[in-house]
Amino acid sequence: MIIGLFNHWVVIILMMIGLYIVIAHGNLIKKLVGLTIFQTSVFIFYISIAKVDGGTAPILADGITQYSNPLPHVLILTAIVVGIATTALGLSLVVRIKETYKSIEEEEIQQQDNEEQLTKHKTEDSA
Amino acid sequence: MINIVLLTLLVVIAIAIIRMKDLFAAVMLAGIYGLLSASFFVVMDAVDVAFTEAAVGAGISTLLMFVVITMTGRKEKSIRHKPLPALFVVIITGGLLIYGTLDMPYFGSEDAPIHNHTSPRYINDSMQEIGIPNIVTSVLASYRAFDTFGEVVVIFTAGIGVLTLLSIARTKKNDEEIESINDSMHQQHLVVRIIAKMLIPFIFLFALYVQFHGDFGPGGGFQAGVIFASAIILYAMLFGLVTARKVINQIFIQLIAALGVLLYGSVGIVSLMNGGNFFDYNVLSSNPITGQHLGILLIEWGVGCTVASVIVVIFFNFAGRRELQQHKKPSQDKESSK
Amino acid sequence: MITHLPILQVITPLMAAPICLLLNRSQLVWMFSLLASGLAFLISILLLQQVMISGVISYELGGWQAPWGIEYRIDKLNAFLLLIISGISTVVLVAAQTSIEKEIPKDKYTYFYVLYLLSLTGMLGIVATGDAFNVFVFLEISSLSAYALIAMGQKRQALWASYQYLIMGTIGATFILIGIGLMYQMTGTLNMADLSQRLPEVAQTRTVFVSFVFVIVGVCLKLAMFPLHLWLPNAYAYAPSIVTAFFAATATKVAVYLLIRFTFSVFGLSFSFTTIPLQTLFMALGLIGIFIASATAIYQKNVKHIFAYSSIAQIGYMIVGFSLSTVTGLTATLLHMFNHALMKGAIFLALAAVIYRVGNVELNHFRGLGRQMPLTMAAIVIGGLSLIGVPLTVGFVSKWYLLTALVEQGWWPIAVLILLGSMLAVVYVWRIVEVAYFKAPLDENIKVKEAPVSFLIPIWTLVIANIYFGIDTRLSVQVAKGAAQSLFGVSP
C-alpha cells in the first residue's frame, strides 16, 4: 500500500505547501506564487493518475500496445492555460495596488483602508 | 524511481519558497518548480503537458513575475501574518485528502477505472475516427473541442482583463522620450542584439513547426503561440518596447486575438450550417477524416493566434506600465484615495 | 436551428464578445451587446418552453456521444436558470451605457462590454453544460471576467476587493478541480449523467466522500455562503454599479445551481444527505448566515454594503430551503433564486441611478432623495418590501413556500427563526426609508434630478416584475416546482 499510494501523498504535501503560502503570507506576490504552486501540484496529481505502468506517451505508434491515459493530459493542458490567465490577471492587480496603495503587504493595505474608513465617518458625524 | 526523486526535489523547492524572504529568489524557485514538474510530466508520459508547463510555468509566468517585482520591490515583509490558522486549514485539508487516498487505485495500476471506461475508445478508435496519431490532440481538438474553445476564451478574457487594468493611453512625446533613453541603454548589448536578431527567425520557424506538428507529436496551437510570443518578447526586451511596438501595433494584436477566437468559433458555426452539431468536423468535408483534419487545422490556428497575441499584449502592457513608471512619475494622485 | 438552441444559448454572447472588440465604438458596442444578450434571452425562453413540453434536451457537442464528448443537457432546472441569467443581463444592459458614463473612463468602454459578455457567457456555460470539467472551464471564464469587471470600480478599494476575490475564487475553483479529479479517478467519466450512474457503485469509498466534500466546499466559496462570504461585501460595494446589479442578481444563483446540481443530480440525494450530516450543517449555517449578515447590514453606512450583506442573508434562505431536501423546500429555494434576482436587480439598478445623480451611495447622502428622485426611491422601497417578504411582492411567495416546507417537516422553531430574520430586514430597509423620506437634504441648494429614462425603464421593468410575479405566481411556481420534482424523480 505504501508504494502504491506514496506518490499521491507526496503530491498532497505539495498542494498543501502551496495552499499554506497563499493563506499564511501577506505579500501579494508571494500569495500568487503560492497559488501557482497549489495549482501546479493539482496538475501533478491529475497527470500521475493517468500513468499506466509500462505505458508510453499517448501518441500512436506501431508495436506499442500500452498507452497512458490521454484524457487527464487534455484536461490539464486546459487547466495550465487557466492558471497562467489567473496569474497574469492577479499580477496586473498587484501592479495597480502598488500604484495606489504604495504597498503590496496585505496588512498595510488593510490598515490604510480602515483608517480611511474611520476618518470618513468622523468627518461625516461631525457634519 | 526517477519520479520519487523528482517529487522529493519538488518538496524541497516548495519548502524553500516558504522560507525565502527575497521575492526574486522565490520567483526563481517557482520557475524551477515549474521546470521540474515539466520533467515529472515527461516521466509520466504526458509530453504535451510537459511542453506547455515548461513554456508557461517556467517561462511566461516567471517572466511576468519578474517584471512585476521590478515595479514593486523584491523584499517581503518579515511578518508572516497568520501562520496558525493557515496551518489549521492546511492540516484539515491535507488530512482529508490523505484519508481520501486510502481507497484510491494504486499509482500506475492498469485496472483503475479511468483506464477502462472512456479512454479505451480514445486509444483504440481515434485513428479511425480522427486519423491522427497524437491522441492528446485528437481528444483536445475534436472529442473535447469545446473545452479547448473555453480555454481560448479564458486566455482571451485574461488579455482583455490585463488591458483594462494596465493599458495607458500613450502620447507620442512620451514614447520618444522613453525611446531616447532606451537607445542609449540598449547600445550596450550590441553583441546580444546581433545574436538575437539571428535567432528570432529560427524561433518563428520553430513556432510554425510546433503549430503543424501537433498532429503527430507533442505540440499544437497553444505551445506554438507561446513560442511565437516569446520571440516577440525577446525582440522587445533587446530593442526596447517602443521599437517593438512600431513593428507590431497594439491595436493590431488585439485584433488578432479577437480573430483567433472568432476563427475557432466559426468552425463550429460552419459545421452547424452544414447540418452537423457544433464542432462536428465530419460535415466540413465530404470525407469525414478530411473534415476532421481540416477542423483541427483551423482551430489550432485559432488557438495559436489568440494565445500568441494575448501573451504579447500582456507582456507589452506590463512592461509599458513599468517604463512609464520609471521614466516619468505617473500622475497617480487622481486615481488614489478619494 | 431549433435543435441547436442549447449551444446557441452560450455561443451567442461568446461570439459577440470578440466582435465587440472589433467594433470598438462605444455606442455601437453597447447596442450590439444588448442585441446579443437579448437574443440569448429569447433563446432561453424558447428553451424553457421546449423543456416544459418535451422534457430533457441533450445536445452532443462535436457530434460525439456523451461520455466521450461534451454534452449539453437542458432540463427544467437549468432552463429556468438560463432564463433568469439572460433576462437580468439584458435588462441591466439597457441602463449600462448611461451608468458607465460616470464611472468608467471612456477608453475602457469597449473592454467593459467585452468582459460583461464574457461573464454572461461563463455563467450560461456553467448552467447549460452536462460535463463536470466543462463546468470548471466556464467557471473560470465567468470568474476572470468578474475580477476584471470589479477592478474597474472608481475607488482603489475596488482593486483590493478584486484581488481578494481572485484569491478566494481561485482556491474555490481549484478545490472543485480536485473534487472533479477524484470523481473522475473513481469512475473514469466526466459526464454528469454518466457520473450519477457510476458513482453509486463506488459510493462507499473514502475517495468519493472526499471528492464530494471538496466540490461542496469549492462551490460554497463561490457561493459566498456563511462563513465563506468575506470576499463578497467589498466586491459588490466597490464594483461599478452596473456590474454590481448584474452580479448581485445572477452570480450567486449560478453557485446555488451548482450546489443543487452536484448534490442532487451527480452524487444523488441519498448519498448527499446520508454520508455527511449535510442537512443539519447547512440548516445551521444558513440560519446563522441569515442572522449575522442581516445584523451586519443594519450597521453599514454605505447602502451598497447594506444590500451586499443582505445578499448574504438571502443566500441563507436559499440554503435553508435546500437543506430540507424535500420537494417543497427545493421549490422554495428555486423560487427564491428567481425572486431574489428580480429584487436585487431592481435595487442595485436604482442604486446605480443614485450614483449617477448624487455621486455616491453613503447613507447620509440619501437625505431628501425621497422627494428629489421619487421614482428611483420608490423602486428601492418596493424592492426592500420584497426583501422583507410583504404580501403582493415576490418576496412573500418564496418566504411562504419556505415556511410551508418547514412546517411540513414539523420544523416549527426554524420557521419562527426565519420570520425573526425577516424582521431584521425590516430594520435595515427602514433605515434607508427614514433617511430618504424623513430627513431634510444635506444641502438645500443642490437640486438632484430624477434618474434619466434609460435607468427608469429597466428599474421599473424589474419592479413591475416584482409585483406581477408576486400576484400571478402560476408561471414561476409551475417551473420551480417542476424542476424540483424532476430532481427528486417525482413525476409531476
TrEMBL record, chain A:
It is a multi-pass membrane protein. Pfam families: Oxidored_q2 (PF00420). One of its GO terms (cellular component) is plasma membrane. Keywords: Cell membrane, Membrane, Transmembrane, Transmembrane helix. Residues 117-127 have a biased composition (Basic and acidic residues). The chain crosses the membrane at residues 6-25, 32-50, 70-95. Its main location: membrane. It is found in: Cell membrane. Residues 106-127 are annotated as: Disordered. Residues 106-116 have a biased composition (Acidic residues). Belongs to the CPA3 antiporters (TC 2.A.63) subunit C family. NCBIfam families: PRK07375.1-6 (NF005621), PRK07375.2-3 (NF005624). This is Multisubunit sodium/proton antiporter, MrpC subunit. It comes from Pseudoalteromonas denitrificans DSM 6059.
TrEMBL record, chain B:
One of its GO terms (cellular component) is plasma membrane. It is a multi-pass membrane protein. Residues 191-312 form the Na+/H+ antiporter MnhB subunit-related protein domain. Keywords: Cell membrane, Membrane, Transmembrane, Transmembrane helix. The keyword Secreted does not apply. It is found in: Cell membrane. Residues 9-72 form the MrpA C-terminal/MbhD domain. The chain crosses the membrane at residues 49-72, 84-102, 149-169, 190-210, 222-244, 251-273, 293-319. Its main location: membrane. Pfam families: MbhD, MbhE, MnhB. Belongs to the CPA3 antiporters (TC 2.A.63) subunit B family. This is Multisubunit sodium/proton antiporter, MrpB subunit.
TrEMBL record, chain C:
The keyword Membrane applies. The keyword Disulfide bond does not apply. The chain crosses the membrane at residues 6-23, 30-57, 77-97, 109-129, 135-153, 165-186, 206-224, 236-260, 280-299, 306-325, 337-356, 377-398, 410-430, 451-471. It is a multi-pass membrane protein. GO terms for cellular component: plasma membrane. Coiled coil: none annotated. This is Multisubunit sodium/proton antiporter, MrpD subunit. It comes from Pseudoalteromonas denitrificans DSM 6059.
